[in-house]
Design goal:
37% helix, binds magnesium ion, alpha/beta, 24% strand, 4-stranded mixed β-sheet, 8 helices, binds adenosine-5'-triphosphate, Carbamate kinase
Length: 251
């Protein structure tokens, strides 16, 4: 069975209707979609609502105890359950879980400066495979435990590592830009892994694109090509699975 890891960017949530339709359709075709979602936009919304201040460093959110509670509540609660409910409503069969459930993601503190932010240390794909084998679409909220604390882990990193752990066939990142842009703003249709270092050095890649590109590179251990596609475009997911060349391919 073909396994496709689909990262849904929090920034495209709310405009994800056709993405979820595509996920249900793919599952019905016998393909096994594994959804990993972010939720940056929703987290910011709730942090603002609750009056909790945060900042970003290196594209990652500095997370203290208070913001960690909000991050976990929003990602594992609101966003995850909204996605699962929406998929089920479309006639799909989804089970929501997080990197914490079944100890799927073992994390370690990424950088003391970032607080409760983790890098993925290891993935136990067992619980995800169990969900797949039972005929469900796993919908995974990012997060991981280091044995002492829950840690906020970037969803792209979880997606990339999940692709490796599941030996996935495809890795697709749906986001809120048409693809990776060069210095002049033109989209790369193909990006070779050897080019990434210089793009990082020249600061062409910034913010959330940094963990995304690293996640693409990691996933290349399992997939031939990782794709970054505009999830706001109707049926972008189905088109890319069917082989249409949209967005940026990283090989
Ligand atoms: N060279 C680049 N090309 C394209 N986008 C870039 C580039 N450098 C930085 N970015 C930024 O990366 C953003 C995408 O990452 P972002 O983390 O914001 O979204 P996401 O990962 O889809 O959502 P979430 O983090 O909620 O899961 C774009 O909106 C853009 O602002
Ligand atoms: Mg992101």
């Amino acid at each position: 069975m073909k396994t496709i890891v689909v990262k849904i960017g929090g920034s495209t949530l709310g405009e994800h209707d056709t993405t979820l339709e595509d996920i249900v359709a793919l599952h019905k075709q016998g393909i096994c979609p594994v959804v990993v979602h972010g939720g940056g936009k929703k987290i910011t919304e709730w942090l603002d609502k609750l009056g909790v201040a945060t900042e970003f460093k290196k594209g990652l959110r500095v997370t203290d105890e208070q913001s960690l509670e909000v991050v976990v509540a929003v990602l594992c609660g609101i966003v995850n359950k909204e996605l699962v409910s929406a998929i089920n409503k479309l006639g799909g069969k989804a089970v929501g879980l997080s990197g914490f459930d079944g100890g799927v993601i073992e994390a370690e503190v990424a950088d003391e400066e970032l607080g409760y932010v983790g890098d993925v240390k290891s993935v136990d794909a067992g619980p995800i495979k169990a969900v797949i084998d039972a005929g469900y679409i796993p919908v995974i909220a990012p997060g991981g435990h280091d044995g002492k604390h829950m840690l906020n882990v970037n969803a792209d990193s979880v997606a990339g590592e999940m692709a490796v752990a599941l030996k996935a066939d495809e890795m697709i990142f749906l986001t809120d830009v048409e693809g990776v842009r060069d210095k002049s703003g033109t989209m790369f249709s193909t990006l070779h892994k050897e080019e990434v270092g210089s793009l990082l050095d020249m600061e062409v890649l910034s913010g959330g694109m940094i963990p995304k590109i690293y996640a693409c590179l990691r996933s290349l251990l399992s997939v031939d090509a990782a794709r970054i596609v505009d999830g706001r475009q109707p049926h972008a997911l189905m088109e890319v699975v069917e082989g249409k060349s949209i967005g940026t391919v990283i090989r």
